[in-house]
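Deliverable D4.2, example record:
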Amino acid sequence: MSLPQGRRSSTFSRLLRHGFTDPAAAEVLVESAGLTAVRTDPVLLDALGVTADPDQALLGLVRLVEVLEAGERRTLLDTLTSAKPLRDRLLGVLGASEALGDHLARHPHDWHALVTYESSDLHPGVAEFERGLASATDPDLLRAAYRRCMLAIAARDVCGTSDLAQTAGELADLATATVRAALAIAGAEAPEDAALCRLAVIGMGKCGGHELNYVSDVDVIFVAEAVEGAEEAAAMRAATRLAARMMRVCSDTTAEGTIWPVDANLRPEGKNGPLVRTLSSHVAYYRRWAKTWEFQALLKARPMAGDRALGLAYVEALSPMVWQAADRDHFVTDVQQMRRRVVEGIPAAHVERELKLGPGGLRDVEFAVQLLQLVHGRTDSSLRSGTTLTALAQLAAGGYVGRADAASLDAAYRFLRLMEHRIQLYRLRRTHLVPDDKAGQRRLGRSLGFRADPVAELNREWKRHAVEVRRLHEKLFYRPLLDAVAQLEPVETRLSANAARQRLQALGYADPAAAIRHLEALASGVSRKAAIQRTLLPVLLGWFGDSADPDAGLLGFRKVSDALGKTPWYLRLLRDEGAAAEHLARVLSSGRLAPDLLMRAPEAVALLGAPEGLRPRTAAALEQEVLAAVGRADTPEQAVTAVRGVRRRELFRTAAADVTGELDVDAVGTAVTDINTTTVVGALRAAMNAVEATEGPPATRFAVIGMGRFGGREQGYGSDADVMFVHEPLEGADEPRAAAQALKIANELRRLLQIPTPDPPLLMDADLRPEGKSGPLVRSLGSYAAYYRRWSLGWESQALLRADPMAGDEGLGERFIELIDPLRYPADGLDEDAVREIRRLKARMESERMPRGADPTTHAKLGRGGLSDVEWTVQLLQMQHGGRLKELRTTRTRRALAALQAAGLVGADDAAVLDEAWVLATRVRNAVMLVRGRPGDTFPGDGRELAAVGRYLGYSAGHVGDMLEEYRRTTRRARTVVERLFYEYEA
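Output generated by the structure prediction step:
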């Protein structure tokens, strides 16, 4: 029967005011026959209006009353209107959990579990839950009983009777009772197996830590022993069958649903290991084979079910090993790997919704607390709780975490876990994702007490807590260190000197005593500088700790701070420019080259904070600057000092941009070549000015021709400048005088660039000139023409492929290129004898020039598939085809390779293989120079230096072996292509 419009409008309005999102549907439910007795009672709508989802709560109530028989229905409704505790509990659960509403529709009499409201009912433990499950003699009965117990836990939770820690503890206790009941069912089904063995179930993870979620895998480890008189192998088989059956009782899905998966993958060897081991087998594994993360997992181990004496013996035997884990050889490396939480594994669409693994998520808090427990729990037994919030409080009480930081982290963790609980409670599904729909976010926000604008308030609080966790995550490790060394004001507790050393050592510092001295120097005192550095250092120390050499980073920061600490702009840079501080930390801990360049002129740190500070300057801008500096100088020495100062600053800019990931390998090569070219331009102007001052007006034109990587614009940080010098007498000039003047210019140029100064020298190598070291240092253009016409050898023509004018007279440089083009790009290509000679020279170089003892599989220049292999292959093809294909006429290897592919002379797959090998080998050489501060063609032998090279190449801590294997694999593929294209070997 339809209702009058006025009545409908009144009910509709009331429903809207009470938070219903679909008042029309709710109106139909309110008018349903099952609610006849209470539909006019105002307390019902008031109670529904404060639930997480009034529409869902009303629907769940109607479903419940409709399946109850008449007498039971009256009892429920009478109690509902007269007893506020039941009303709040029942409607609160129905509004928060669709899944528990379904359970009540299947088991309507379970509403009685919410009626009792006595002190003993407030916080039940394992014993109370065991009584609640006592009648469950088969898996389906156990599932129903489990849900009935969970119903009461959820009611206390949503009504605020239990806080987060109590709810998580109750869920863990219920899990304990459930596992015991499941084990009893398994034993009853196979009494002969139960009679052969003693089986203990060890709780792990959140269950072991007494902080379980509503829906979570229950992590366990099984340990068993044979009973007296039983054969061990038979007992282990029996224990394995019991354990497997117990897992199925909990995990299987039946008409009553499932409880939760029981996960035994934390056991020794994981899925590959036996499900059940003896105690001695467990001990032997952890003594010999266990990794750091496995000891971290044991922090939460506790006897849960089965033979209690055996479970206690397990914990007693393994606990000492947990607290010795920080003394293990690879602890620091393992910690660095674990600290780099792999968020890449989270789908991109989920990262921003991920409560557990996302940045600022629950895992950040749990990992931080567990790491501090491992570091300090070995000497302080008060820190050994398996419960995150308890352990955090213990760390704060002991001074290992600042009290204010601990309080902030406690509040954030509680809020995030409460969000997680409410999300899982809705459908009792295992998830850590915040709903992406408005309805889900509204329900979640209301369940957390947000009423005015639930979605906006939820997101605002969630983001605030996540940011706080992110902010505190690193600070948690380092702030107490600074409090310990600064000692500015009395506090109740501080880290002891020994605890500070332990923490620094665990975070990767090889010399914690020196690190503490640096921290004392940086953070002590009441100056503005010390105050700013105390604020910044916790973050800087974390960045240093992520590098391969934290000690070097901290030492470098102290040196820069000592040099610039009283400079106002430096303090502002650190305080206000977040990116500048991070760039500084990464540069200082990247190796020797960039810090050495910075220490020679610390004011260059300003580049790290400038908007365009890490963008390489153009060659034109650099040339303008150095020529102006040369023009202002009074002497050639002053001029070249200014020029080399510009070079040092620009090398630092490029190195800093490189180590912070701003430049690719081509950009680095171009930038370094531009810097060195500009240096030669400035030094040449100074040299010519000096010669003019003594010799009078110029008698000749002079040009510097770049060769090798210099001419190819592919220089690395450690590259020399391979050059040739060419001159051309001016019209009417005396040729002997012109030649003498040109030689003086070349010698003065070389002298100026090698004058000892604090700045790195640029070595000029002219050995690629005609006749090498035996020939004249400088030749006229005509002399070059005569030599190349009569005496030129094949290797000289090949070397000229990289020739390019770099400095001096532009017209002369162009005429030199016109002279050599027919040599390097023969019109008819190469004949068979010329090709054979090039191959012979390459083979001879491979056998004679490889350094003694060097590994040919990892030598970046001369090794298998390295730079020489790729470049000789490309250059042979350029000489064979460059005469007819002008697009091959380039001094750059990668451009030439791309042109060869475009011309169909190299297949796309082969070109990609060669390109990849060339880029990788070039990056290795750059990395070695950045890390060691001196050039090298092989991977470093020192472990820290090798790890730093790995970081530059993108490998995280502990993956040096992967780096070397990948290098060998890449260059092995390249060598195969080289043998086919260069030597024409058939596979």
